[in-house]
Hints:
Helices cover 62% and strands 0% of the residues. The protein contains 14 helices and no strands. The chain is globular, with a radius of gyration of 19 Å.
Amino acid sequence: MHGVLLGTERAVRLLAFAGILASMMLWELAAPRRRQTTARLRRWPGNLGMVVLDTLLLRLLFPLAGVGVALAIEARGWGLFNVLGASTWLAVPASIVALDLAIYLQHVLFHAVPALWRLHRMHHSDIEVDATTGVRFHPIEILLSMLIKLGVVASIGAPAVAVLLFEILLNATSVFNHGNVRCPPAIDRIVRWFVVTPDMHRVHHSIVARETNSNFGFNLPWWDRLFGTYRAQPAAGHLGMMLGIEQFRAPRELRLDRMLLQPFRDDDRTYPLGRREPR
């Protein structure tokens, strides 16, 4: 039974990811938010190559992933919800919210700690932001993120179905909120109360540090409002804002090999939460 569930988990996640990525790419072609000056054929090979590499590493090092850990924890009666005997109707939504909060806090941590920022800045160094940016994460960051996620799953005793739903939501919303898509402002203002929208998250990819240090949410937008990290709009506007990282703007930095080496390259040792901009 568990083997069937694990096999289903992989198929469902892959189909959901491929579907949302293809849908966002079509939306970007039909209604782009910003005019991109860097060709997709220059950016996409590195971004998509990174997600292939990340997936292979996760399957090699964590073959059971979150669903497998959730099943093992449930069988032993470990974790908060298992100890309390919480009903599925309570444990599933509560687990999804708890995991989303953990991802928000992890994101803030990766901006605050210099060594972790070196890993995470590869995601920010994309000089354009579109659906493929949502899968552009350094393999070491992905592995650390998985360890954190497994720790949360084990500690709260998240049901396997909750972990599966969360993984699908996280992948889908990451691709969605990085999309270079146009949405009517009136609709965006409503939707961003329930899910992080592309216009909300794009502020986070601004080259301006105070904007980089805002809108950390991937899925639920409530954490930024609750913890005071919400910023409604970029100062220069969505069409005028500059995206990326100062030291990685050369075209060669879009190559997969250069992206993999970014955390180990010399820089000025600054990081967003420790950097002060001139007034």
